Amino acid sequence: MLLALVLLLYSLSFALDLKEAINSAIDNSPSIKGLSAERFVYEGRRLSYRSGLNPSLSLEVGNFGTSKESFSKAPLYNFTYSQPIVYPSILRLAGEIYKFQSTALDYRIETEKNRLASEVYSLFYNALYLKELLKVMEEELALQREIRDFVERSFKLGETTRLELLRAERELELLEGERRITEARYRGVLRELSVMVGKDIDKVEGEFTLPEWKEMNLEDTPLFAYYRLGKESISKQVEVERLLAKPNYSLSLTGEKVGDREYGFRVGLTVGLPIFYKRQGELLELSAQRELLLAEEKSQKQKALAQLNSSKTQYEETKRQVEKIQRELIPQAQKELELAFKSYKLRTITLLELSQTRKSYYDLLRRRLELLLQAHTEYAKCIAYGGSKWCGCY
């Protein structure tokens, strides 16, 4: 009893459904983990704007070579404390830039998650397709074994020829070879899926059916939210650079030796004049970044619209074909196969005719699975944009 329980738990631990596959792959992704570290880059840039608040202190000591007094009587000759004055709006804008960049990074991470979810979804349904295909092959093998056994009994009774027996055995061997190849493909996809999710997968679990297609607004997707915030961030950076291009000010307090043992103090104001193209290089760079971002956003939007329209058209047509095969063609072919098997037993048709009828029926089952896989492949392409909010699968 204990051994049976252990074996049951062991087998269950290796089964994987779609939601678990996608979430495990996201948790196991090095690229997604690495993107989170980029937030420290934005924090560092925000803090760098505060560096302009750092004061400076200068000291001058002694009158070496000219003083008639000893150094110990008047060691300190001059000291100056200077405090830069930063425009208050620079620090405010720096905080806004960090907020925009940090939120844009969140959307970028979501976009990467959606891309990964699309890959895992496609791979998962490829594995599920092969699993269902193996079931169809096992069913066809069982039927072919039954046909082979019937032909073998008929041959022993002298009711059929050796040629028919050899043909039945050859078809059985061909089907067994196809099943072994498909099983190897299934194991290969499971190993690939295991690498992505970070654990060994023995089988996948799920219904091989088609979900409903939902309309998608690209402006609500993480990718284009990322572009919007990226443009906002650049606009705020331009405002900061324009402020930095203005004259910079600093106040200073100077203490200076004015007598034998007397010191005087004075206050000064220093103004930096922006004469030689101050911050123009940074402004040109930001302008170029904005143009590049706009061009990339436009290109991505064209690509996404084309992909969505193409995938939707193919998905809907494929779904119609699947429904027609399930509703009309498969039931009819199944009846034909049952009739052909009975007719062959009554010797009213040949083995070749039975084989053709069997092949037609199972080709329809295979075709249905291929169309389902094709539809899921198109569906997966759109998950890369809409993510979980669109598909609701993780």
Commentary on this structure:
With 394 residues, the chain is an alpha+beta fold. The chain has one domain (14-304): Outer membrane efflux proteins (OEP) (Up-down Bundle), CATH 1.20.1600. It has 9 helices and 6 strands, in the order H-E-H-H-H-E-E-H-H-E-H-E-E-H-H. The protein has helices at 2-13, 18-27, 30-36, 38-48, 88-156, 162-197, 222-244, 280-345, 351-391, and strands at residues 15-16, 56-61, 76-85, 203-204, 248-257, 263-272. The protein has a 4-stranded antiparallel β-sheet, with no helix packed on it. Strands 1-4 form a two-stranded parallel ribbon. A hairpin with a 5-residue loop joins strand 5 (248-257) and strand 6 (263-272). The longest helix is centred in the first third of the chain and has 69 residues, at 88-156. The chain is rod-shaped. The two termini are 36 Å apart. 22% of the residues are buried. Mean pLDDT is 89; it is low at 1-13.
Short description:
The chain has 394 residues and is of the alpha+beta class.
Nearest-angstrom radius of gyration? 38 Å
Shape label:
rod-shaped
For the record, the count of structural domains works out to: 1
Biggest sheet architecture:
4 strands, antiparallel
What is the CATH H-level superfamily?
Outer membrane efflux proteins (OEP)
